[in-house]
Amino acid sequence: MQGRIINSNGGKYQVALENGTTTTIPARGKFRSVKTTQANPNSYSKKETIMIVKQSPKVGDLVEVLDERIESILERTNELIRPDIANVDQILLVFAAKEPDFSSYLLDLFLVNITKKSISPLIVITKIDKLTVEEIISLKKELSYYENMGYTVLYVNSKTREGTDAVAKHLEGKVTVLSGQTGAGKSTLINAILPNFELKTQEISQALGRGKHTTRETTLYPYENGYIGDTPGFSKLDVLGIEKKELSSLFVEFNNETCRFKDCLHQRNAKDCGVHKAVEEGRILSSRYENYLKMLAQVVKEEKR
Ligand SMILES: Nc1nc2c(ncn2[C@@H]2O[C@H](COP(=O)(O)OP(=O)(O)OP(=O)(O)O)[C@@H](O)[C@H]2O)c(=O)[nH]1
Ligand SMILES: [Mg+2]
Ligand SMILES: [Zn+2]
Questions:
Q1: Strand partners, 63
Q2: Which residues surround ligand 3, an ion (CB under 5 A)?
Q3: CATH class, 85-230 region
Q4: What's the 42 CA to ligand 3 centre distance in angstroms?
Q5: What pLDDT was estimated at residue 32?
Q6: Are residues 104 and 92 in contact, defined by beta-carbon separation less than 8 angstroms?
């Protein structure tokens, strides 16, 4: 029988089975999966490369269950390391408007990583109740740049459920994972969308005698013919495994139309760079450009190692 892993803990996997029941079982062992990579059209060698990789089951995996064990993992449509999850349809990037303060660098970094994975993101700003009217207007203005890029940006106060219905509407029939800094309000947002869960969190924090319950593992909760995934927050995110030229391609508005030089990395000393011009004329947000340079410096440092 097939199912989907919705939680994993100490080698035991919680699997939602296709018959509607849930079971907690171990895996048969380590899995090997054969990956074939297409022959590189630019290379003289027309051979395919065959690699055998070891896989452990992870949350989101579709699995075959036999004799109370996970027998095999079905091929993943995608896979993320942070958060650690497979087969997601969309990712909700959760940022607090305040506490922790909104960071455009973190947003751009997220977008680079997600654009690389071709997973569609939705941007959610929580804790809007912590901003003054002027601060909200200014944040919305900054984020309108991203809306013009085609991203959906939603604003919520999860405590009063203001704006959370609009978030919920995007979840139907999809596997959605929430990702963001620790304390950004991911679990609180899920509580607002799944009201039955609020009690549970309150109980935990009261029992522990503290106001905050940090999420320690990734879990998928069923919601409207799909799943919504809560994940542990992080305090640091890196640009990893990205090359210089690829980085500029992941800043999607830094394209051939913006800068006509194919090999330009748009550094500060680049000559006649169209990206400079676009920043000067306000067509590219200057924080986007500054964040790009900061990431480029990191990539260069990484390459030197
Ligand atoms: N005022 C206000 N407080 C919020 C809102 N959303 C979350 N909070 C508070 O922010 C704190 C952190 O919220 P969590 O939901 O635990 O944050 P998280 O992203 O799940 O954090 P980790 O599990 O550590 O990754 C809690 O004290 C919440 O009550 C909001 O919209 N408004
Ligand atoms: Mg949490
Ligand atoms: Zn350039």
A1: 3, 73
A2: 259, 264, 266, 273, 275
A3: alpha beta
A4: 25
A5: 74
A6: no
